[in-house]
Structures are given as structure tokens and as C-alpha cells.
Write a structure and sequence with these properties.
It is built from 9 helices and 19 strands. The protein is of the alpha+beta class. The protein has 2 domains: about 230 residues, 3-Layer(aba) Sandwich (Aminopeptidase), CATH 3.40.630; about 100 residues, Beta Barrel (Elongation Factor Tu (Ef-tu), domain 3). The chain is elongated and about 65 Å long.
């Protein structure tokens, strides 16, 4: 059968998600909105105590189930210290380089839910003042600070605003959709794939179809720090498909137009039989795809396996350029990923072992 996906809907959801703050540890708002969207398409949802969401799409067989994960937590920061100057030192949340956030606009969210804007700068930003030192300065924790867009001259002024240690720092995503089909934004990792999973749920609802097996969409909230799917995978799951992102760079095949099928990441190889099945489905659908090895990458499938899940696992996702920086993908990659997910869910699980 021909699979026609509503790419416009996926892009709309991606923009909505990308512009909803959700650094690791601050995900309640975005999870509630995702739960409501899954419910809109008739899925039953439940929230995990640790954070995260399971949305279940009933299939023709509920004994052997599938779980597809996407993570909604993003990179960000946390206020570490208020300096005597009234500027803020911050601690990273997730793995990114400091030079990738230099000059970025940001928002500080206080424990009282007040929001203040600012800019991330080095302590020697002005070339008119520091000359060559500005370029030579290391981009590390000690050299970076946040300049608040408030009249603050000292620590007491900052305290009066309600800003303190432990407040979240959210990077401005600067989400843009171009007429040529590109989406450039922070946090495409992994909000692009969460939007894809919403598009998949919409497809089954509107087409009146049931997947071959009951399917759980597992939206995790701690993937960026390594334990997103370490708990919560439904016990009936026999196949776990992490829907994350494909990386682009030297020595890799993936582009912004492909669905990536990862064969190995930092945790080791993914299941060979499941990988072969995904490749066969991609070729049968005529989808642009790439096989790649990602040496500095981990996924929710890996977290589930390390926690003892008895599942066969694989990893796919749209190709994303400049990962963990200001990222970019294309609608063709989103569509290819969604169509591969649908083809996979319509297929039967091949029995193997206990």
C-alpha cells in the first residue's frame, strides 16, 4: 500500500515543540502537551513517576508488542553562581561545546516560574577591549557567563529578581522553516522525531488502521543524560525502536534528506535482523536512507538494554546537521522517517527465542 504522511502536520508539531522549553529536568509542560496530542488521535496515555510518557496504540496482536521511543528533553543549563558583577555563571545540562552557545540568547526560568532573558557571552567578549585575548580565551565554564537583560549591578540586585542557583537556563531555539523545506532550530534532537511519532499516530487514526502489534510510543525525559528509557519500557515489548536523529559529518553517509539507520553507536551494534528488516522496508517503500556508525552517540534503546530489557533494538531518525548546536534537517527526512515507522508497524514481528 502507498503510505502518504501529513508532513505539514509534523512540521507544525515540530515548531510547537521546539519553541516549548524543556531542558532536562524541566519537561512537565511539554510532556502534558504531547500527551494531549496523542489523546487527540485516540491513544491511551500514562505518565511515569520518574518523568516520561507512554502512549499506546492498540494493535492486532497485544501479546508481542513494540515500543518506539523519542525523547523530549533537550540541552540547556542551570544557574551555578551569581557573580558579584550581577552576571551569572552556569553549568551545562547535556553534552555540548561552549563555543556552540556563545552569543546565544537565553531565558532564565526561576523556581517561582518568573522568566528573564539574557545572552551567553565570554568574560572577555569585546575585541575593542581585549583584542587578541578575546579570540584566544578558552571557551570553558570559567570563561562563560550570562548577561541579564535587567538593571543589575551586583548579587543583591539579582536576588531581588528571584534568580538563584538551580534556576534553569533555556537556549533560544530560533526555529525557522524555509521555503525550500529546511527546518533549522536548536533541539531538533529529538523534537523532530517526537513530531514524527505524533504524525505516525495521526496516520493510523485517520486511516482507521491498526498496527500488526500493539505499539507503545515512549516519550522519555532524561535521554540527554543517559537514563531516559532505563525504566518504563512495557514488559510485553519484544522490539524496541529508538527514533532519534541521524548524524551528518565526515566519514558518514547520512544527509538532511535521509532516514538514518544506525548500525552501531558507542554502546555497540544494534540487532542485525531488525536492521535488515528496516533496510528491506525502506527499499520497498523507495525511501532515501543511510547506514552509519556513530562513535559518540547513545540512545534510549541502549539505556533500555543496559537496564535489562529483553528486547531486540534498533535506531533510526531523520538526518540532522550540526547536532548539539544550531541544527538543521529537511522535510524529506521527516517524511522518510515517518513512512519507515509506519511500514515497520504494519509488518509482523518475526518470532525468535523467548
Amino acid at each position: 500500500m502507498s503510505i502518504t504522511i501529513d508532513t505539514t502536520y509534523i512540521v507544525q508539531q515540530l515548531v510547537r515543540l521546539a519553541t516549548t522549553p524543556s531542558p532536562v529536568g524541566y519537561t512537565d509542560e511539554v510532556l502534558a502537551s504531547i500527551s494531549a496530542e496523542f489523546s487527540r488521535w485516540g491513544l491511551k496515555t500514562r505518565h511515569l513517576n520518574k518523568g516520561g510518557l507512554i502512549a499506546t496504540l492498540e494493535g492486532q496482536d497485544s501479546a508481542a508488542q513494540r515500543t518506539l521511543s523519542g525523547h523530549v528533553d533537550t540541552l540547556g543549563a542551570m544557574v551555578k553562581e551569581v557573580k558579584s558583577s550581577g552576571r551569572l555563571k552556569f553549568a551545562k545540562i547535556g553534552g555540548y561545546t561552549m563555543n556552540s552557545v556563545e552569543g546565544e540568547h537565553c531565558t532564565i526560568i526561576t523556581s517561582g516560574e518568573q522568566k528573564y532573558t539574557g545572552t551567553i557571552l565570554t568574560t572577555k567578549q569585546s575585541t575593542h577591549v581585549y583584542g587578541p585575548e578575546s579570540a584566544k580565551q578558552d571557551r570553558d565554564d570559567d570563561a562563560m557567563e550570562i548577561r541579564l537583560d535587567e538593571v543589575v549591578k551586583n548579587k543583591d540586585d539579582v536576588a531581588r529578581l528571584g534568580i538563584g542557583v538551580g534556576d534553569f537556563v533555556v537556549f533560544d531555539p530560533r526555529t525557522t522553516v524555509t521555503s525550500s523545506g529546511f527546518i533549522k532550530s536548536r533541539h531538533l534532537d529529538d523534537k523532530a522525531s517526537v513530531a514524527v511519532l505524533l504524525g505516525v499516530a495521526k496516520y493510523f487514526s485517520e486511516e482507521g488502521l491498526r498496527p500488526a502489534h500493539t505499539t507503545n510510543f515512549f516519550i522519555t525525559a532524561y535521554e540527554e543524560i543517559g537514563h531516559g528509557a532505563s525504566f518504563g519500557t512495557p514488559g510485553e515489548t519484544v522490539e524496541f525502536l529508538a527514533v532519534d536523529m541521524g548524524c551528518i559529518g565526515d566519514g558518514l553517509s547520512c544527509t538532511e534528506f535521509d532516514v538514518s539507520i544506525c548500525v552501531k553507536d558507542s554502546g555497540g551494534p544494534y540487532d542485525l535482523s531488525l536492521r535488515k528488516k528496516l533496510v528491506a522496508l525502506a527499499e520497498a517503500e523507495g525511501l532515501p536512507y543511510a547506514l552509519d556508525v556513530y562513535p559518540y552517540y547513545g540512545s534510549d534503546a541502549g539505556a533500555a538494554l543496559r537496564a535489562g530489557a529483553n528486547v531486540r533494538a534498533a535506531l533510526i531518525g531523520p538526518g540532522v546537521d550540526a547536532s548539539h548546536a544550531h541544527e538543521r534537517t529537511h522535510t524529506q527526512a521527516l517524511e522518510a522517517t515517518a513512512r519507515l515507522c509506519i511500514a515497520y508497524l504494519l509488518s509482523a514481528i518475526e518470532a525468535r527465542g523467548e
